[in-house]
Design brief:
five-stranded mixed barrel, binds guanosine-5'-diphosphate, alpha/beta, single chain, binds zinc ion, 13 strands
Length: 310
């Protein structure tokens, strides 16, 4: 058996990259099943698989899929109970934000982070366009960054135009499988271009392109932007924040709220109105940022959009 990583999945055909960087087209063995998850596709990009070459063929047959450390899923349709796995074994989720041109609302950031927590994917926040942060904008940036850093999220400020911290950004992506998200116009493509000049695809367009006319065939791909460093940009990844979370579990995905919730008077406290709620008390004392608590409340009472972040 040969070991490899799935870097592309089109319908039932998988491109597997071996440790020696060979690309082998593979099918799945008919009876291959993944335990515990009702999904429409058993294998996805990021999966570590084991395959055997078919006799007299240049194609392989995937026999085994290694346990996943995490995966991103979406419902295959709104009504269905079945899931489609978009990506597996993601090392980190990078959210590119800015306090200007365009400004990223903190609630957008919070919804994204909730998804990262739910998927158990470490999140990193990149504050791009740092060259534009002057006066009040600089204060605003410092205030917001402080909130996320004190919760424990890694942050980095960058400027593509001034080539500021671009090497640090490259180091963050090095030897990792990353997903990259953020408002349109914050500089995702510019950042990728700055660290990988040969990689000439606009992030986000890849997924838009493949969405057209591909309703029947599922498609996902990850791109090696430089040596052993991958970006997943694939249909569905834009809806990354769309996770099903039980209302009463939502606070588990706000780490600072979760930490304090053990001090609440009632074990089933929702942190919305209860007397003796340690979370509400902490918001009053500014130990928990008001913007974070507001996001919690807004997501909690969000009925229509099931925690969609964009
Ligand atoms: P995307 O939609 O997130 O991929 O954003 P783009 O990479 O297409 O960038 C949108 C616009 O912002 C372009 O005009 C870029 O030149 C500009 N831009 C990107 N990074 C920076 C930056 O660090 N500073 C400034 N001032 N402009 C930037
Ligand atoms: Zn409480």
């Amino acid at each position: 058996m040969t070991e490899g990583i799935v870097i592309k999945a089109v319908g039932n055909l998988y491109t597997v990259r071996t440790v020696n960087k060979e690309l082998v087209n593979c099918f799945i063995k008919g009876n291959l099943r993944i335990k515990g998850l009702k999904s429409t596709n058993p294998v996805t990009v990021g999966d570590k698989v084991y395959f055997k070459m078919k006799e007299n063929s240049d194609k392989g047959q995937i026999i085994k899929v290694a346990d996943r450390k995490n995966y991103v899923i979406r419902k295959s349709t709104n009504l269905s109970k079945q899931y489609h796995i978009i990506a597996a074994n993601v090392d980190q989720a990078i959210l590119v934000v800015s306090v200007t041109e365009p400004e990223t609302p903190t609630e957008f950031i919070d919804r994204y982070l909730v998804a990262c927590e739910a998927y158990r994917i470490p999140a990193i926040i990149i504050f791009n366009k740092f060259d534009l942060y002057k006066n009040e904008l600089l204060n605003l940036y410092q205030h917001i960054r402080n909130i996320y850093e004190s919760i424990g999220y890694k942050c980095l400020e960058t400027s593509v135009t001034e080539n500021f911290h671009i090497a640090d950004f490259r180091n963050l992506l090095s030897n990792k499988i990353s997903v990259l998200n953020g408002y349109s116009g914050v500089g995702k493509s510019s950042l990728i271009k700055a660290i990988a000049p040969d990689f000439d695809i606009k992030i986000g367009e890849i997924s838009d392109y493949h969405k057209m006319g591909m309703h029947t065939t599922s498609y996902s791909e990850m791109y090696e932007i430089f040596e052993n460093s991958f970006i997943i940009d694939t249909p569905g990844i834009k809806g990354f924040g769309l996770v099903d979370i039980e209302k009463n579990e939502l606070f588990h995905f706000f780490p600072e709220i979760f930490k304090l919730s053990t001090n609440c008077k009632y074990y089933n406290c929702t942190h919305v109105h209860e007397p003796g709620c340690a979370v509400i008390e902490a918001v009053r004392n500014h130990e928990i940022a008001l913007s974070r608590y507001n996001s919690y409340i807004n997501i909690y009472f969000d009925e229509n959009e099931k925690y969609r972040y964009s």
